[in-house]
Amino acid sequence: MDPHIWLDFSMDLKIVDAILAAFVKKDPKQAGDYQKYAEGYKGRLLELDKKYQETLASCRHRQIIMGGHAAFGYLARRYGLRHFALSGVSPNAEPTPKKMTGIVAQIKKTGAKYIFAEEMVHPKMSQALAKEAGVRILILNPGGNLTAEQSKQKLTFLDLMERNLKSLQQGLECASP
């Protein structure tokens, strides 16, 4: 089961509503403030979703090929993309040689110039896949945590998703909206 539901921004709207309800239940005196913050965040999520829709609508390639685990299925479905990953949902899973060969064949079949790797996962498998397929690697972050440097920079989930969109735009060869 894929736990990465937050990579479908329409689901995030429901998550924000659930968090809002929990805060209001715990601290009803501040309900107005919580509501204001939740609506502001939901507005930013809607803007991000629209930006993804517009950008990813005009891509030469429609496949997110991951050199790691299958973390971007929800994102792919939301924007009409296909998602291929070297390993399953666990970031520590090791792919079989058959799976590696299949992904290399998929890369060559599509004519992709890039595969994607996760920022927080060791790049060994992605590097091997890229070398075998003759492509370059772009980074995606599933948004579950931050590096120490990102924490120092005070990056947010929305910041990470903006970076992801830039990588997707380049890797999928999307026209500028």
CATH architecture: 3-Layer(aba) Sandwich
Sheet with the most strands, sense and barrel status: 2 strands, parallel
Integer average pLDDT: 92
* CATH superfamily placement: Nitrogenase molybdenum iron protein domain
Low-confidence residue ranges? none
Cα end-to-end separation:
33 Å
SS summary, helix count: 7
Domain count:
1
Describe, in plain words, how this protein is organized in 3D.
- The chain is mostly helical and 177 residues long.
- The protein has 7 helices and 4 strands; from the N terminus they run ααβαβαβαβαα.
- The strands form 2 sheets. It has a two-stranded parallel ribbon with strand order 1-2. Strands 3-4 form a two-stranded parallel sheet.
- The longest helix is centred in the N-terminal third of the chain and has 26 residues, at 31-56.
- The mean pLDDT is 92.
